[in-house]
Design goal:
By secondary structure, the chain is α+β, with helices and mostly antiparallel strands. 43% of the residues lie in helices and 14% in strands. Strands 1, 2, 5, 6, 7, 8 and 9 form a 7-stranded mixed sheet that branches. A 5-stranded antiparallel sheet has the order 10-11-12-13-14, with no helix packed on it.
Length: 513
Amino acid sequence: MLKYKDRKNKGDKGMAYIQSYQGQTWLLPPSIEDLIPDDHICFLIESLVESLDYRGFDIKYSGAGHPAYHPRILLKLLIMGVLDKVRSSRVLARNVRENIVYMYLSEKLTPDFRTISDFRKNNPELVKEIFKHTVGFAKQEGLLDLSHLATDGSKVKANASNRRVLTKEELEVLLRFVEGELQEWAKQDTIEDKKFVEMRGYDQLPNQSKKTIQKAALYYLKRQKEKGESFKAEITETLQKAQDEIEREGLKKVNTTDPDSRFMKSKSGRIEFSYNPQITTDKAGFILANDVCQDAADYGQLQPQVSETKDNIEELSEATAWSFDAGYFEGSNIKFLTENEIDGYIPDNNAGKATNPYDKKNFLYDEASNEYICPENKRLIYIGVQFDKQKQKEVRAYKGQACSECIRQQDCTKRKSGIRLIKMFPYEAERNAMAAKMKTQQAKEIYRLRQQIVEPVIGDIKENKGLRGFLTRGIRTVRAEFNIVCAAVNIKRIWLALQETTKGNSPILWQSA
């Protein structure tokens, strides 16, 4: 094997190579900034992050004690990481030692992975502020297109194991065991199956739950022997949080690794612990508002998204069209849009379903008499208010008067009494008006644009930014993680737009940020 000093002089004399300087050092060390192209996106990230107000942190970290990394450094690294599809704090910590862009953004400091991870979890307010700042900057530069807005949600897997799921009863048994017997059991060399019968409440559990308890207890015992008192405090806190969540939300089951997550069905058909991120975008693809919720259904997120969008952009033209997925089709949402003078477009989530001639949609409502008229021209009268268990809301009920004499009775109702019952849900007039609006050709053409506005942004977040699953746990920290992603998406769009406007001109200096 050739030594370096011999190898560097070896070469094919008949061939010409570009002159290189292997093993040479800089005579005058260059600035890191000089090694990065003038139009690199890192300079825009730096400018936007530097313009935030950090006075609250200045007060927090003033006085005696070990100095802290400035929050601007960690925030810049996290945003750059999303754009490079690098979300792991360990990889980011490695990059500040090996990658010149990250060296520049970290200002030649080298925070470790735990510092980066803790910052992401502990500063949701600052992260939210940088997202809002990107919206404000895009508006200031005239980059937003508010002629058409679109809102949608998408399921993203939580950082939670589907195997660590406990029922309320299992959780109570395990919590009592950890608080009272874990340390004593850990002193024994082996635990026999009959020992588990001594656990309070264990004998009242079904067989499958007993197996779950045994596996969990044996795992806890192993960790208790390894970590001692610190593990008991750690697992007690985890189980207590899970119990609080199951009581507060009235859940049947809870995940102990991330109690805030919920079982949701993904587009692929898999049911797993997930969150439901929501975004609202303009026609140019800028994210104007975002949130993460625990609801599998979207309908409860329309009003929060509209309110946050208005807060972030401060004004909204009456000519703005706003389209929503069918999952937002709910009477109170449609009434909310009407009251706020928003030109909304929401397809009826039942519009595509097959109906028979005696479907409720073919019954006419007579507002003057407060009665329904069936396809056979017979009337259903109002009988009062009832509670619909499936929809979990009060409804107005209408009962047929001549059903027993009708020759179409069996086609119209399957009820044992043979009497047709119609339920009027709240805001049904608004629902019918929206359904009628969406049948017009103009509404169909406007709504078709939604596929070009919000869906590509969701695809970009999942594919190009790598958000197939959250890294953090808990609704508060998951929201912060999603805000970083949304801020990065907006910064990339700002960068592309400003590059387009400066083609052929001098390099972009990002001074206006």
